[in-house]
Amino acid sequence: MTVYFIGAGPGAADLITLRGARTLAACRVCLYAGSLVPRELLAECPPDARLVDTADLDLDEITAELVRAHEAGHDVARLHSGDPSVFSAVAEQMRRLDAAGVPYEVVPGVPAFAAAAAALKRELTVPTVGQTVILTRIAHRATAMPEGEDLATLGRSGALIVLHLAARYVDRVVEELLPHYGADCPAAVVAYASRPDEVILRGTLDEIAGQVKEAGVLRTAVIMVGRTLGAKQFRDSHLYSPERERH
Description:
CATH class of the largest domain: Alpha Beta
Keywords: Cobalamin biosynthesis, Methyltransferase, S-adenosyl-L-methionine, Transferase
Number of strands: 10
Number of helices: 7
Number of domains: 2
Structural class: alpha/beta
Helix content: 25-40%
Family: Belongs to the precorrin methyltransferase family.
CATH superfamily of the largest domain: Tetrapyrrole methylase, C-terminal domain
CATH topology of the largest domain: Methyltransferase, Cobalt-precorrin-4 Transmethylase, Domain 2
Shape: globular
Order of helices and strands: EHEEHEHEHEHEHEEHE
InterPro entries: 4pyrrol_Mease (IPR000878), 4pyrrol_Methylase_sf (IPR035996), 4pyrrole_Mease_sub1 (IPR014777), 4pyrrole_Mease_sub2 (IPR014776), Cbl_synth_CobM/CibF (IPR006362), Siro_Cobalamin_biosynth (IPR050161), Uropor_MeTrfase_CS (IPR003043)
Radius of gyration: 20 Å
């Protein structure tokens, strides 16, 4: 059997990939994060599939479920919100499966920052304005940030910064980025991207914290800060330029 770590996408059930949906439909066991993964996706599972909500399980209990399915000869769909490559807590599960000799594969999904950019109708990399996107978070009660990855240090680059898991700490975000980006720098927050209750907030860096508090956004949100969010005057990309050699 194989454990398939499947990116379920940012929220809308139809944003799972075709490969993800096909894999889900073929697995006899499905572990999913009930607080994040849309329930509609579970309809893709076989009628007799064992469904396990991992919201109240710790890492050892999750690993035990995966190993138990392996021993029974069942493929497992391990559904994670967004894409497994960022902020998914997949790495420690893979490490446990390696130790247990359980094979696994990864099926990518649509990440939350991509869904947020789509909601904002913005390309995050704009010629001559910004070509770098930093995906990060800030330190709080959970895992500390490694040395050199604090927000003040990353902000010195001037690149577009995308923050996950930071809506509760928006005041800190603004405080640490203001010296590097300026009060008038475009900023945006998208909560519940792609879902029916999606919330989109746009403004400048010195305005965005107030908007977040007024809207009551506390979780499941992405914060973006950078000049590409408001770029209007920029050179066309060389990709489609008539001057580009195409032969």
